[in-house]
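agent> Task received from the user: take the single chain below, predict its 3D structure, and emit structure tokens. No templates, no multimer pairing.
agent> Plan: (1) validate residues, (2) run structure prediction, (3) serialize to tokens, (4) report one or two observations.
agent> Step 1 OK, no nonstandard residues flagged.
tool_call: predict_structure(input=
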Amino acid sequence: MEHTFTKKIKEILAKHFKDNSDDIFDKSELLQYINFKTKSAEKGSKARSSFANLYAIYILVEDYINKEFHKSGKYKDYEGVEFAKLFTRQRELPFGSKLQNHALNNRMNSEFQKYFPTSSMIPILRNLETNRYWINENLIQISLAKKKYNIAESIIEIVDEYVKTKRDSFERFIASCIELQKIQKDNTSAVKDFIKGLLKPNVDARLFEIVSYSILRAYYKDQKIYWGFEKTTIKEDYLNLYKTGRTNANDGGIDFVMKPLGRFFQVTETLDVKKYFLDIDKIERYPITFVVKTELTEKEITSLLKTNAEQLYSVKEIVKKYMDSIEEVINIPKLIKIFDDSVKKGNLGEILEEMIRQSKVEFNYQELEPED
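)
tool_result: status=success, residues=372
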């Protein structure tokens, strides 16, 4: 498979391996995998970025190079790198501040095997007893005409270039938001179309979460409740939605929390019932609202989840308890309706401002400032 970033990959390989670069690219399963994972490079900030699995490879190859195993050839005797060091390192990388351990532990290997089902090798090796990790050196040493070529340095350069390209696209996205902010009063329709364009199934998970939060935050802030511990001390409060951290699709955390109702929101792009039930289990089946990056109807989503749940669990009571824990499903059409309602109430500028604010935090422009 070739895409726009493939040309950059081949340029980097040609710099390192000259006339052998095309053969190395064709023979390396790891380079083929990286090629696939970088297909969103030139598609702008909207396209899914795949940093987690790429960084799992990157940090292990980086450790390999830092200890000069690409020169010494003694990697087989290496005791492996500790998980804690890898986990810390991936969070130091651009866009990596909230990455979890899933890619390192299984997800990357599992996906690699889907692309190369006949391959006898997996990229990440680990010892569960010592919690130490290795990159599979057989995948970074390519044999051509009885000579071995080590692609470790090329991999680092390729991923660095991909990150730079994605950073540039996010910078352009933020710049576009700021420009729209300047003209929003004179050209409301352009701003509305821009934001609605981010509510699509193929949009980057980070951006979808940021836009969803910005829309829901503005929507709920106009709603108020009356509550109290005694009849004589009833209090009037507006609903406030809070983000619990930076975005990261499939990280298993709770994304938004509403005060004072204590509602939990989880943003997801999957319809895998196991993922939903895992989130529900983590909060002991406390009611949770799922914001789903799909254009399927709410009825279709819940029906699909229930059907898949019944295939997993033979006991109806278990299925019922899980399904009852789903307080609400907010799909893309519902988000668009909520957005339109908020715009009618004059919240367009606030939504755009919050998108800029959260994007700057997510993409390491600045830390959040305390709200008044």
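agent> Step 4: summary for the user.
Residues 113 and 120 are 9 Å apart (CA to CA).
agent> Done.
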